[in-house]
Design brief:
It is a single chain. By secondary structure, the protein is α+β, with helices and mostly antiparallel strands. The chain has 3 domains: about 200 residues, Multidrug efflux transporter AcrB transmembrane domain (Multidrug efflux transporter AcrB transmembrane fold, Up-down Bundle); about 60 residues, Alpha-Beta Plaits; about 160 residues, Gyrase A, domain 2, CATH 3.30.1360. Helices cover about 50% and strands about 20% of the residues. A 5-stranded antiparallel β-sheet has the order 6-7-5-10-11. A 4-stranded antiparallel β-sheet has the order 3-4-2-13. Strands 8-9-12 form a 3-stranded antiparallel β-sheet, covered by helices on one side. The two termini are about 20 Å apart.
């Protein structure tokens, strides 16, 4: 390899390091830590009554989507048995808001308004308000097909009107998307929704039937609004008003967009706070394990390859800098959180990175044993070694990618860290290790066999 090309490849490594660390240092970014390293909250959702495995799996997917949509990365969301879902979320601050979102069934119902009973009406005192009891699963589920009476709690008056409604005509399954928007007429916020293609004619038929009548919008048996249908809605779009705050509208739009949970859960889930102190101990142990592995690899490479071991030491230092910088940027811009499993993936990859150097250096030693100089062997040995390095790293990356696709929670973090480290290994091997050895081979001392781990002197130059 020519000197200019070698220096150019090393310059690429320097440019990449600068490109990563300039924003990290200027912005003061640090790695975002996962639940097991910084602490957080663990929530166990208990289903009411019996639920099928398919229902629990779907509920877990919906909860996971809701948590991810809040920007809470690397949550652990997994069914446990036939009636529970475990949710672990790192570093959350607004616990109550998160609990309300992940546990809300978001059962949206559209019902015909049969009667609005205002305070002062004769029937007001004698009309009983329906009180749903989620504990009585059979009765609770039967309410969907029954007449009910609910208070309109969002009324401005001190005493709230009572609204009698018929059975459910349509449910939230008809909604394809929902977004929070400013309510310019009433102030506050509202939710604009779009119906699925299949539901659009159904909703048009319903609004045709209830023209100039009132249609109640009920969410988890809370009456949100009961507007008068002024015209047939044929475009598949509607809105839910109710003087929502910005956060309430965003949260409601979120749960409607992600879909209703297919099962009911107990209103008071089991909540456990995970200690940050335990997380710090785990982080300390993980870092010590990584440092010990790094030292052992450096000592091994120095013992086996003498002067070439110094190249591996610098390569591992560059590897560590790249991993740390990328983790900082991922945490800042993608909210990716480093877990103990992720640290394990990085520690394992130290050995992978060293393996690439071993493959290359062994090829070099074979060339030197055949009587060739180190300088004349650098490119030939690397060409052969690089094919092996690519094949080995490709196998590791494919394994990590499949694991990342199929796994959940902490295992996903391990797979991501391993895959990232594998890509960095190829980068460092091509842009640093090869050109660095090429430049060092021009030094007389590096052409002494014992200095590169070969135990006898060359007798007469190249063979």
């Amino acid at each position: 390899m020519k000197t200019g090309r070698a220096l150019g490849l090393l310059a690429v490594v320097l440019a990449v390091l600068l490109g990563i660390y300039l924003p990290v240092l200027i912005g003061g970014y640090e790695p975002q830590l996962g639940l097991d390293l910084q602490g957080g909250v663990s929530v166990t959702l208990q289903a009411l009554g019996e639920a099928s495995g398919e229902q629990m799996a779907k509920a877990a997917d919906i909860v996971r989507n809701r948590v991810n949509a809040l920007g809470l990365a690397e949550p652990v969301v997994a069914p446990q048995g036939n009636n529970r879902i475990l949710v672990q979320i790192p570093g959350i601050q607004d616990t109550e808001r998160v609990l309300s979102i992940i546990g809300s069934t978001a059962q949206l119902q559209f019902r015909e308004v049969l009667e609005v009973i205002y305070p002062g009406d004769e029937a007001y005192e004698s009309t009983e308000v329906t009180v749903p009891d989620p504990e009585d699963v059979e009765a609770y589920q039967a309410l969907k097909d029954q007449e009910i009476v609910l208070l309109f709690r969002k009324a401005d008056t001190e005493e709230k009107p009572k609204v009698r409604m018929g059975p459910t005509r349509l449910t939230g399954d008809i909604i394809a998307s929902a977004d929070a928007a400013v309510d310019e007429q009433k102030g506050g916020y509202k939710i604009d929704f779009t119906l699925t293609d299949e539901a659009t004619p159904q909703f048009a038929s319903l609004t045709q039937e209830l023209l100039q009548k009132q249609l109640a919008i009920v969410l988890d048996y809370n009456l949100e609004s009961f507007p008068t249908v002024q015209s047939v809605i044929e475009n598949g779009k509607g809105e839910i008003t109710g003087s929502f705050t910005r956060e309430e509208a965003r949260d409601l739009a979120l749960v409607l967009k992600m879909g209703a949970l297919p099962v009911e859960f107990e209103p008071d889930p089991l909540v456990e706070n995970i200690s940050a102190t335990l997380g710090r101990d785990s982080l300390r142990q993980g870092l010590w394990a990584g440092l010990l592995g790094l030292v052992l690899v450096v000592l091994y490479m120095a013992f086996m390859y003498r002067g070439l071991g110094g190249v591996t030491t610098v390569a591992l230092a560059i590897f560590a800098l790249l991993v740390y910088g990328i983790v900082c940027l991922l945490g800042r811009f993608l909210d990716w959180k480093l877990t103990l499993a992720g640290i394990a993936g990085v520690v394992v990859s130290i050995g992978i990175s060293a393996d690439s150097s071993v493959v290359y250096f062994e090829r070099l030693k074979e060339e030197v044993r055949d009587g060739k100089t180190l300088r004349s062997s650098v490119d030939r040995a690397y060409k052969s070694a690089f094919r092996t390095i690519i094949a080995a790293d490709a196998a590791t990356f494919i394994t990590a990618f499949i694991l990342w696709i199929l796994a959940m929670g902490a295992v996903k973090g391990f797979a991501f860290a391993l895959g990232l480290a594998t890509l960095l290994d190829v980068f460092i091997s091509y842009f640093f290790t090869h050109p660095a050895v090429s430049l060092l081979s021009r030094l007389k001392v590096y052409n002494r066999p014992r200095f590169v781990g070969v135990g006898r002197e060359i007798a007469g130059g190249e063979g």
